[in-house]
Design brief:
69% of the residues lie in helices and 0% in strands. The protein is built from 9 helices and no strands. It has helices spanning 4-29, 41-72, 83-104, 118-128, 131-150, 153-167, 184-204, 210-226, 231-247. Helix 2 (41-72) crosses helix 5 (131-150) and helix 7 (184-204) packs antiparallel against helix 8. The longest helix is centred in the first third of the chain and has 32 residues, at 41-72. The chain is globular, with a radius of gyration of 18 Å. It starts with a helix and ends in a 14-residue tail after the last helix.
Length: 261
């Protein structure tokens, strides 16, 4: 019998890629249809499929106690409060490094949002961008604890990050999607780096899931501000942060990590 995490991976690809294929069929059959816009049900179904799958598989494999454990990982004070400014400040630094490097070669954005507009921008990203809430209950809620049961933290992060990156591949062939303007190998560096960052946070914060959602949210928000030409610098800065975590021993198993709790 296949392990739960393998079943999760196969179902994740089948659900989202299948929904995308259905959207492409509709686009060919209905002139003017935009199946991957925020007004389309295909966008929301595909976007939230991973989190819904993670919740459903938690219910099937672990029952009500598993769902309660998953819910407890959303309690903000499960992680010590200093982790929130660390994540926000860390992504602020990653953004600043990427912005400086991009502007040095003429690839940075011409303007930045006013500081007072940042909270609204982050909130709008959370509401419109399906990634943070639509994926993290699956990738980090269901899959991460289980891959950590099978492999050491670094190997688990690389496996999960690589699968997560490959899961995005169809978006690179759709002209209307922002990924179509990004070099996939650099994108994969960013996704794998996030996997390492999230594993580090998981091990050090008592498996807090809100931090993984926050990382995903900040990565998408910062990437949206920088724009496609500057994104390689952003992915490289995330990669540097991930390498620093590994080099400083951040992925060593911690007693504070509670697998699937």
């Amino acid at each position: 019998m296949a392990s739960p995490v393998r079943i999760f991976f196969w179902c994740a690809f089948a659900l989202t890629w299948g929904t995308g294929l259905a959207g492409l069929v509709v686009a060919r059959m209905v002139p003017g249809a935009q199946p991957f816009s925020t007004t389309s049900p295909f966008y929301w179904i595909a976007g939230y499929a991973i989190s819904l799958l993670g919740i459903a598989m938690t219910a099937v494999w672990d029952g009500p106690p598993g769902l309660r454990r998953l819910g407890s990982r959303l309690v903000p004070w499960r992680a010590r409060l200093h982790w929130y400014p660390i994540v926000v400040g860390g992504y602020g630094l990653i953004f600043a490094v990427a912005l400086y490097a991009a502007r040095a070669v003429g690839a940075g954005p011409a303007s930045l949002p006013a500081l007072r507009a940042v909270p609204i921008g982050v909130l709008m990203t959370l509401l419109i961008d399906v990634g943070p809430l639509g994926e993290e209950f699956g990738w980090r809620g269901f899959a991460l604890p289980r891959v950590l049961e099978q492999w050491p933290p670094l190997k688990a992060s690389l496996i999960l990050g690589a699968i997560h990156a490959i899961w995005h591949v169809p978006l690179f062939f759709l002209p209307d999607m922002p990924q179509s303007r990004i070099f996939f190998p650099m994108f994969a560096v960013g996704v794998i780096s996030i996997a390492i960052i999230d594993t580090w946070l998981y091990l050090r914060s008592g498996a807090n899931l809100l931090l993984a959602i926050l990382v995903h949210l900040l990565a998408n928000y910062c990437g949206g501000i920088l724009g496609a030409p500057a994104l390689p610098f952003f992915f490289a800065a995330e990669g540097a942060a991930a390498l620093a975590i590994v080099a400083l021993g951040g992925l060593r198993p911690s007693r504070s990590a509670a697998a699937r709790t």
